[in-house]
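sorry for the late reply, my laptop died twice this morning and i had to redo everyting from scratch. anyway the thing you sent over, i finally got around to it. pasting the sequence first so we're on the same page, its 490 residues, then the predicted structure underneath. double check i copied it right bc i was rushing
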Amino acid sequence: MQDITRLTAAELSRSIHACSISCVAVMEAYLDRIDRLNPSLNAIISLRDRGTILDDARTCDRELADGHSRGWMHGFPIAIKDLSEAKGLPCTWGSKLFENFMGQTDDIHVERIRAAGAIIIGKTNTPEMGLGSHTTNSVFGATRNPFDNSRSAGGSSGGAAVAVAARLLPVADGSDMMGSLRNPAAFNNIVGFRPSFGRVPSGKSNEIFLRQLGAAGPMARNVQDAALLLATQAGYDMRDPQSLADEALDLLPKAGHAGTKIAWFGDFGGYLPFEQGVLEVDRKALDVFAAMGCEVDEIVPEFDMDALWKSWIALRTFNVANGLRPLYDIPEKRNLINVQAIWEIERGLSQTAGEIFEASVIRSDWYKFVCRLFERYDYLVMPSAQVFPFDVTKKWPDEIAGRKMDTYHRWMEVVIGPSMAGLPVAAMPAGFGSNGLPNGIQIVGKPRGDRELLQFSLAYEHAAGIPLAAVAAVAAEKLFELDHVESLSR
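ok and here's the structure:
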């Protein structure tokens, strides 16, 4: 019997629209898998009533029988990252402060996913306020890595990444300020795509002009599925004054990539520390690029990377602090805010306007530097994470290769460059270490070069003997089944 959850999202859509499988059968397959695996993974939260979800699926089947399709995601199960509102579902932001809050409207990208036909079945877990690349919070607890349940899922889109990797969902939405689509993609051996800033509109914030560091995007088990979801999420919306114009994002057959020039950043000339084995895994990708006919140069960026880090801290804390200040200013609510958010708020509120301006000047210099690199190279490539998935009970890695981390998030410094430049980034699997844990790479495209980057990432996926995620799914399935058997024997 066919396992529906093994279909790619593209295959699932074709099968539903050909009426070779029903929306009810699809939903039952995914809900059964969620019932079996989610208790040990904790990826999906606030799951709606099964009967109500199946009623929604029956409605989708009736619509297809009448010749009506809502869109390519007709009858798909989807769970929305718990930093975004979906009307009628809880939205906690991983915080006790919002434990009982119900979404009043759909965020713009959620609205588009729903309009494409998806059935929203619940939410995916995230750290409190999305801060930190480790998905755990005081409301729902920790999300666990499918390759080793004692390890972190990454974050902040950790719940989404695990749900996709474990085939609890065909695709998922995520968001990314400091690697939140990229780190969990690496930790769970899937694809995460952080689009160009403005590609996916966001208009829910009370301030819509200064927040230029974050982006929403797709997570999937392969590039084609990621591109399909991105095409649904993307496009101009007048509610977001910085959203980009509509642009084709479909993938087209393309000739080889011989002569494509790639700059490999590695450890940034020794500037960044890495856990033993991470770079060895990531360097496997360089062999794939070479086999594709690409020209790969290892470079050391001629830029003051510590100044870029300080600029990042200034701009990030400025945004976080002023966004959360109304909560911080009330002592009773302040007591319910975690240490990561308190650090961001207090650091941000201590800054002057002049310091913020200077940080923006450094960011501008970085963007200009990156543009000069793109005069010589087609893509920039760097690791997606500096460590393998770590102990799920740790707050965060406080040391890498003997070097102390001076903030709760410095262990993810490798991701800030593309964020600061607003560039599109494909987080792609690179392989597994000798410890059996995955890691991945960031392929960084030119400004607004999302489609070209997706096309190149698809070529990498094929050249690497992929789908990589399908290979990972076999390994993960053994872990899932072992855990299931062990839980029954206890």
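The first helix runs from residue 9 to 17.
thats about all i looked at so far, will dig more tmrw
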